[in-house]
Design brief:
This protein has 674 residues and is an alpha+beta fold. 23% of the residues lie in helices and 30% in strands. It contains 16 helices and 37 strands. Strands 20, 21, 22, 23, 24, 30, 32, 34, 35, 36 and 37 form an eleven-stranded mixed beta sheet that branches. It has an eight-stranded antiparallel beta sheet with strand order 14-13-19-10-11-18-15-16, with no helix packed on it. Helix 11 runs antiparallel to helix 13. The radius of gyration is 28 Å and the shape is globular. The two termini are 48 Å apart. The N terminus and C terminus are likely disordered.
Length: 674
Amino acid sequence: SALRNRPLSVVLTSTMAMSSTRLSTRSRTISRASRTGRSGRCSRAVYGPSATAVEAPATTSAASAEVRDGLRNIAIVAHVDHGKTTLVDAMLSQSKVFRDNQEVATRIMDSNDLERERGITILSKNTAVTYKDTKINIIDTPGHADFGGEVERVLHMCDGVLLLIDSVEGPMPQTRFVLTKALAKGKKVMVVVNKVDRPMARLDYVLDKTFDLFCELGASDEQCDFPVVYASGMNGIAGLEPEELAENLEPLFDSIIEHVPPPTADVNGPLQMQVANIAYDNYRGRICIGRVTSGTIKKGQTVYVATPEKKEVSAKVSELFVYKNFLQEPVEEAEAGDICAVAGMGDATIGETIMASTSEGGVPLPTIAVEEPTVRMNFIVNTSPFAGQEGEFVTSRNLKDRLAQEAERNLALKVEPGETAESFIVSGRGTLHLTILIEEMRREGYEFQIGPPSVIYKEDESGKKLEPYEIAEIEVPEDQAGGVVELLGKRGGQMQDMMTRASGSNSVTTFKFRVPTTGMMGVKGALLTATRGTAALHTSFDGYDPIANPDGVQRDNGSLISYDTGDVTTYSVKSAQERGVLFVEPGEKVYDGQVIGINARAEDLKINVCKKKAANNIRSATKEATDKINAAKDMSLDDYLEFLASDELVEVTPLSVRVRKNPSMKGSGKKGGK
């Protein structure tokens, strides 16, 4: 816009100068000369100028703002399994947070049971370390695309981000998402190439792709001139050059202090703190976590909670904490620029502002906005014949209160009333996002039913119906590549890129597809089957476009359905297993209408697995010895949700997960689409 009214010659000159600057930046960032006579990018040249302090909020006057030089606020972001939590473990360990004789578990930031079981980070968490008299507030974030809402809201609390990138895989779909958000908010980005000790590390390739990603996302020349640190979080080492790694993480800590800007804020101004996270404590109640952007908050102080659309409500700070050495440390006050936890704020929710009274100059900050959900499921009170036998919380009121509580602390989740008083429509970023919620509720003692996942459609300005699309990156051995192309082609996927690289004695092919979300539902199991369990799948949301599969994706096999209630018998299983694959074993209880297996054919089939052998006086000496019973197929909650047809429900209890035909749908017993 600045060049719009300039003469053409000036515009051309300015444009050429900008292009020259970007090419120069790329040359400094990407080219790696030999160890001797290095004339390209060096460890210091890539950094450019030292970091400057972050601008104070609009409510803070420049004259009264001060730089908190002894403080840094950073968020560690990356694609899933690129080593964020492991790196945080090493940073905590080398900061002398733990005693020398203290036994510390691996991935200590993953405190949730589900996080440890699945090996992924689900919730954002805060901690802090002190290095050379500088306090570094660290926010560990999830890497899976379905939990992107966690990343979006915590970026409000930090001044810079550490973008971790695997030394072999390079930038992945979630890398693009988190980098887009960080650049849009003007955060200082520091690239950490992690796992440099891997045998197949491709450092030149990774930096090249990272720079291309910055340019593709419209980063400025200054942002493209990003700092780079090489590290191995598992071994706790880092360096400014991959060949010159130190024996610890000091180069990483030094780079954070040098290049992540310290916060600038008015400590003496009116109080202003936006709630970015919520925790619950049995003794303190609701705890609001956020960054103080202006003023000072004190224990016992009377404050006000408000939003631009909501009137202020008074509250009193009952307890106040800051983060120090992996613990919440009680303090009397917290100053602007620091991250703290506040108790006593009543029913304050994420996005609301804790502030001084408007008469004292308090101004609420704009509420935090995150991207809209793309998938939804129907949560229904359990009505199966076995309802109420295993769960503690079984009523619609229990279900409603729990979902409302989850919606308060999970901005990416939406809860709406269903068609009846006993059903609720829950929308999220993806199937995994909702599956984690279901599993958490199940472990808390809730019992309910789940309908099949469905995508959330939109309409454009002309009224045309649109569906969400995803970018899917798939890594598979080269000899299994054909199955990937065939499978995603049937599901409406369009191949955008394909690359084959050597991996030891084998070759690995990486595909990049753009697939409608309807086509991605249930694809994981089918993909593993098509590639003999060798495929690795990563996805990210990519926007809305016209519908590719109007009829949806049809399941290839029908269901085996029990038409009797009772105990599964060995005698009936012998004949039933010839019809397909069973989910149940002898001795299990089943009921009429329960889905007990996968039919070998496309249609549904009702069978009796409770039939007992008739008692008579005829015996065969060898009959029993030749009969064999196949093991039942072990199905997890994720597997059941992928298998689910449109006329089926998943029954979830603390002890069991079962599938049944939806009794409210006509035509139950016929095959349903996904």
